[in-house]
């Protein structure tokens, strides 16, 4: 299921998951014997119904979930960007980006990453003075500065307004082209998956139930015949009725701000989460 013909042997696996099982104590397993390989430099999008276990899988790869049953191999150099930026409000933007860097040139490295996301002019700003889009770009810079081999993105555009979302998607595409980390993007948005990814996976009943190779030239556009045909295919697999093939669909998206923080914030700092959410609400 994981080895697409277009992926050559040059691309070695950076993520290898075998027979991953995760349950939360009640009912059936959320992840139930899941196998997954992601290769170096590959951009993979993960779709699936709400509650299908996408974030659980991402958090497992990030090392934020308990040790699961099964085998999980991931690179040490990995970084995560969540739906909310999770910047620390009492540290300046550059210091948020440099968090954990132990080198004497930490500020310079943070500045370089912030330049890449177009935020070099906000180096010394406080996080709460950033707009929602700027804060999310700072979160991307914080991930980038670690030169990750694996970038884990958990609905990073979901809380942004439509225009900012498009711009930030474009930014992620160009950062990926420049640095070529392997990416796992969790999303509810079929169009977003097809605009960005080499492969689109659907998580269903605890496993990768569908694995689509996206053989489209970049940059991609809605409305290209090949785009529309892959989109219809994904929607069929997801069991979603297609009303207008040229309109972006987001039927699977949960309202961004109404999501309960429980699943994503259990083991993180609640104060940081709350502060980030406030910043988003004010933007
Ligand atoms: N810490 C937890 N404790 C108990 N149950 C949990 C926990 N984390 C996740 N779950 C449950 O596991 C299932 C999968 O959750 P998960 O957040 O991974 O799904 P998802 O596909 O990312 O959903 P969504 O698309 O709505 O974000 C859900 O039923 C959820 O309630």
Automatic annotation (TrEMBL):
Q: GO MF annotations for this entry?
A: ATP binding; ATP hydrolysis activity
Q: Where is the ABC transporter domain?
A: 15-230
Q: Quote the PROSITE patterns the UniProt record gives.
A: ABC_TRANSPORTER_1, ABC_TRANSPORTER_2
Q: Where is the composition biased (Acidic residues)?
A: 240-249
Q: Which domain of life is it from?
A: Bacteria
Extract the ranges annotated as region (Disordered): 240-283
Key word Transport present in the record?
yes
Which UniProt keyword terms apply here? ATP-binding, Cell membrane, Membrane, Nucleotide-binding, Translocase, Transport
| Entry keyword annotation includes ATP-binding | yes
Low complexity bias: start-end ranges:
255-265
Q: Which family does it belong to?
A: Belongs to the ABC transporter superfamily.
- Put simply, this protein is called ABC transporter ATP-binding protein
The scientific name of the source species is Microvirga aerilata
